[in-house]
Amino acid sequence: xxLLSQIGFGHWTGVVGWVVSVATVLGLVLVLRHERRQARSxxxxxxxxxxxxxxxxxxxxxxxxxxANVSHELRTPLNAIVGFVDLLREGVYGELAPRQVKPxxxxxxxxxxLRHLVDQVLxxxxxxxxxxxxxxxxxxxxxxxxxxxxxxxxxxxxxxxSLSLVMGAALPRIRTDPTHLRQILVNLLxxxxxxxxxxxxxxxxxxxxxxxxxxxxxISRSSYPTNPWIGIQIMDTGIGIDPADQSRIFEEFEQINAxxxxxxxxxxxxxxxxxxxxxxxxxxxMVELESELGRGSTFTLWLPVDPADLPVASK
Length: 315
Ligand code: ADP
Fold this sequence. Notes:
single chain; Helix Hairpins; two-stranded antiparallel ribbon
């Protein structure tokens, strides 16, 4: 009896062991099948994502091409409108009757606004399509900034504002694209005048070893080299910008309290800062903002400086 129960026990443990092994193998097979199915669906999903992202890129490129072509086609008739209205206003086709003066001025302001908008859309489209070229030159910043400042001098004095330049004498030369640099500075200075009614504007430069802590609109520092940087600051005593709005004004078509619809000059386009930020990135720099509502704003254009261009004293 004892022997029999021993054989029975041995037999049952054998059976249980066999069942457990089969169950384990079955379990493993099921897990493997599940894993393989998951891997297959992952591969399918990543293929789908790849397809979607290349489709997105293609559509985006087509959009930019379309915008660039349309803007280009719009420019020619617009230039004709602006040119002829100018001639009308100058009396080339006879003196305007007093009643006609105001409407003609409105046509001129609207046509200029539209041309400016089309120019800006064209610039953005070109940048998005990677068609904006960079022609680097070595620039002496002081005379360059003086020249840009003289462009807005009449606007500044029309509003009774002051304009001063605070720039060290021993600034390094910078290697950059002068056309793009000028466009950024003209945009920032134009805004400073537009949004300032009292006080004035200062153009200041700062030479630093590495970028100081970021302000609004800034880009992560880690992707930038640590060479010396020069900051060209446009400081105004204007209306200032609420911290809640400071990032979004760098987006395309974003404006805070845009001017009245009828006033083309005041309305702006909401594209100036978006273009300035993209242009700055294109020339290896960035635009940042510090501002306090009601107290004024400081926009800083940071540009990298080649250490070889540093004045001897600061090397
Ligand atoms: P806009 O053509 O409207 O000036 P921008 O892209 O140049 O377009 O500026 C976007 C918005 O940022 C403006 O509508 C204005 O509200 C705000 N802004 C820009 N510069 C200044 C400044 N210096 N002071 C106050 N607000 C500013």
